[in-house]
Specification:
Blueprint (H helix, E strand, L loop, with lengths): L1 E5 L3 H12 L3 E6 L2 H10 L3 E4 L5 H7 L6 E4 L4 H14 L3 E5 L9 E2 L11 E2 L8 E3 L1 H13 L7 E4 L4 E7 L20 E7 L2 E3 L12 E7 H8 L11 E5 L3 H12 L3 E6 L2 H10 L4 E4 L5 H6 L7 E4 L4 H13 L4 E5 L3 H9 L4 E3 L1 H10 L7 E7 L4 E7 L20 E8 L2 E3 L12 E7 L3 H6 L2
Parallel strand pairs: 1-2, 1-4, 2-3, 4-5, 5-8, 14-15, 14-17, 15-16, 17-18, 18-19
Antiparallel strand pairs: 6-7, 9-10, 10-13, 11-12, 11-13, 20-21, 21-24, 22-23, 22-24
Length: 453
């Protein structure tokens, strides 16, 4: 595909790296010469120096022939204009990074009179196919984790009927045993195992070690029972402390507050504290230095069910997570954007390190795939993908026992849905055209997996 990315900040650069790694032709439009020099040192992509909303610059970048135009500048309005111009010039699909929640949905224009219907302005009418907000995406993920039985990231497929959950192996029932000898209480697929820096697509002979991150795919109804095999259930958090009252911290607090969770935000800026207090009526807002141990003790942080480090600095969030762990809080979550920091953070005791960039990239990745791809989730530091696909009429994977299908090395067939029933695959299972299938594979072989459908 031919992909134009406008704006090479953290998000734009990350998406460019991901798309170029998948073999797409990528062009980056950026107005900073220093940033373009950095891009040339690290990525094999074409660059255009110029302003984001300039039609001549967009034309030079070739948006009229683009399969996807992704606008990721730091200005919401500029991103909307870029998408509008790109669509008018001939781009097939557009994506806008928009931080203002008011832009993220439908805008209902006022009516001229009570008897006249109000006009609804949709993102599509502005030339935008997908609006993404990394901060809101991260907040939604944290809210989902804290409202579940386990402190574990979960991806949903087939309208929620199939789930993929990452569990940290910590119970004797699964330790030091080959997968074939583990008595799973419900049917499931062990899709991947991450041990330190190594990611494995396991066979029945693989042995689980303490601390391994194990990715399980199963029916939604069975996931809680399966999780109990790996870790001790902790239940839904009823109270949470968030350090950092920026965009992400605010959105996290807003969602937890709406879910009935008692929330306290610790924020250094007095001005920001006032802003949050005016918008969140139930959340307790404390002005202070969240990295100060005495402040955390004085604010009773140790009694909270969950601790979320949500400042704008990865390193500080990891440090804060360790402070929370030292205080004995049972659920520690930290925002970490740099991919190299995620495994390190979780290795030293952070329960879940969440990357807004990776979560957003998963949403955008769907647009660069075949029509048969329903959704894409990036796992294990983007080394692994979970892909929901629909089997076509002439698909190579369909109409034959799975034992006869030649799968690419590094690919595993997960649950599939036939006539609204979730099936765990066996060697004699037969996928029919129209069935939804969850495949888990190494990112490098995802094009070969897609060809099977």
């Amino acid at each position: 595909m031919y992909i134009v990315i406008v704006g090479a900040g953290l998000l734009g650069f990350h998406i460019a790296s991901l798309m170029a790694g998948e073999g797409h032709d990528v062009v980056i439009v950026e107005q900073s010469e220093a940033t373009i020099e950095t891009i040339h040192r690290q990525l094999d992509v074409k660059t255009i120096l110029g302003g984001a909303v300039s039609p001549s610059v967009l034309d030079e970048a070739g948006v009229r022939n683009a399969d996807i135009v992704i606008a990721t500048t730091n200005n919401d309005e500029a991103n909307v204009v870029v998408c509008f111009l790109a669509k008018q010039m001939g781009a097939l699909r557009t994506v806008a990074r928009v931080r203002n929640p008011e832009y993220s949905g439908y805008l209902i224009a006022p009516a001229k009179s009570p008897t006249v219907a109000r006009r609804v302005v949709r993102p599509k009418s502005l030339g935008i196919d997908l609006i993404v907000n990394p901060e809101i995406v991260a907040a939604e993920e944290i809210e989902r984790i804290l409202s579940s039985l386990y402190v574990a990231p979960t991806e949903k497929f087939a309208e929620g009927r199939v789930q993929l959950t990452e569990f940290r192996a910590d119970k004797e029932a699964v330790l030091d045993k080959p997968l074939r000898d583990i008595g799973f209480p419900q049917p499931c697929v062990v899709a991947a195992i991450v041990r330190a820096a190594e990611t494995m697509m396991p066979s029945r002979n693989h042995v689980i070690k303490r601390g391994d991150r194990v990715y399980i795919v199963a029916s939604k109804e069975d996931m809680d029972e399966l999780g109990a095999l790996f870790v001790q259930p902790r239940g839904k958090a009823s109270s949470a402390v968030i350090v950092g009252g920026g965009r992400v911290g605010f959105h996290i607090a807003q969602r937890l507050e709406e879910g009935g969770v008692r929330v306290k935000i610790i924020e250094q800026s007095m001005r920001r504290c006032r802003e949050i207090s005016q918008r969140l009526k139930q959340t307790v807002v404390v002005q202070g230095e969240g990295s100060d141990y005495d402040t955390l003790v004085q604010e009773g942080v140790a009694s909270a069910d969950a601790f979320v480090a949500a400042t704008e600095r990865d390193e500080l969030n990891i440090l804060l997570g360790l402070l929370g762990k030292n205080l004995g809080i049972s659920r520690i979550l930290a925002l970490v954007d740099k991919p190299g920091y995620i495994s390190m953070a979780e290795a030293i005791g952070i329960d879940v390190a969440i990357s807004p960039l990776q979560l957003t990239a998963s949403r955008i990745a769907r647009l660069s795939r075949l029509a048969e791809v329903v959704s894409v989730s990036l796992l294990a530091g983007e080394q692994v993908e979970a892909i929901e696909l629909v089997a076509g009429e002439t698909a190579a994977i369909a109409n034959k026992p799975l034992g006869q299908v030649q799968l690419p090395a590094g690919a595993i067939v997960g649950p599939f849905i036939h006539e609204d029933i979730v099936f765990i695959p066996q060697s004699d299972s037969v996928i029919q055209p129209g069935d939804h299938v969850v495949m888990v594979c190494r990112t490098s072989v995802s094009p070969a997996v897609e060809k099977l459908f």
